[in-house]
Design goal:
globular, 21% strand, binds S-adenosylmethionine, 7 strands, Rossmann fold, alpha/beta
Length: 229
């Protein structure tokens, strides 16, 4: 039985299963293998843009005898998927900007029943901004620490079709400012410090005043919603 890292276990735990899941950027296909082994899914599509990652995936499938249940596919994002081929889509371990671009290039995901589980390594604000601007609501967010320094967030979202404007601060912190657990607190603090560092650098250099003002607004949102120094 495959053992998932805390980061991948947190993402896999947010998937409903019971339907066809697509794992985009799968590399070793660890999440697909877990989904089959745990009985959460009977069919998973595991895709990646690169041949080498897909070879890694093939080795995992061979090792655990999962070739029948997991379909491997070369795909740039969701480009090699037929519309509605998967009801749940999982994208982990990529930058948030790339995740948002992949979702934006696949308008077929904007439909009732679509559930996304996303784990951005950076710029989670781009992911939340995409979701909130395209009819998704955040179902749940989970943060998880690995080692002493690394903390990751996983975002689960459902498509409802209702698009309501959200403050930029919500894109940066999502529902995590309301959470009491240590990993979520560490994640929002890191995010706040990153925004502050950039805003201070811009004001020090006297450049991009509009970007600085937008970042100061995000900082204001952080403190208005219980963020700590
Ligand atoms: C760091 S690995 C993450 C692997 C795994 N999902 C995880 O979270 O551990 C990122 C993977 O995304 C793949 N990737 C990067 N850009 C991609 C794209 N546009 N479409 C599909 N896969 C992509 C890379 O080839 C690589 O295998």
């Amino acid at each position: 039985m495959l053992f998932l890292s805390p980061r991948l276990a947190a993402a896999a735990g947010l998937l409903d299963g019971g339907k066809t899941v697509a794992d985009v950027g799968t590399d070793h296909a660890y999440i697909p293998a877990y989904l089959i082994q745990s009985g959460k899914c009977t069919h998973v599509i595991a895709s990646d843009i690169g041949g080498k990652p897909l070879e890694n995936a093939r080795q995992t499938l061979r090792k655990y005898g999962l070739e029948e249940q997991i379909e491997l596919r070369i795909s740039d994002g969701l480009r090699a998927y037929a519309p509605a081929e998967a009801e749940e889509i999982c994208i982990c371990g990529m930058g948030g900007t790339l995740i948002a671009e992949i979702l934006d290039a696949a308008p077929w995901i904007l439909r009732p029943g679509m559930h996304l589980v996303l784990q951005p390594m950076t710029h989670s604000e781009d992911v939340r901004a995409f979701l909130c601007g395209h009819g998704f609501v955040l179902r749940r967010e989970v943060c998880v620490a690995e080692g002493r320094r690394r903390v990751y967030c996983c975002i689960s979202a459902d498509w409802t079709g209702k698009t309501e404007p959200v403050p930029a601060g919500f894109s940066y912190f999502g529902t995590l400012l309301r959470q009491e657990d240590a990993a979520a607190k560490a994640f929002v603090k890191k995010q706040y410090l990153r925004v502050k560092k950039r805003a201070d650098a811009l004001s020090g250099a006297g450049i991009h005043p509009e970007e600085e003002a937008a970042l100061r607004e995000v900082i204001g949102y952080y403190f208005e919603n219980g963020g700590e120094v």
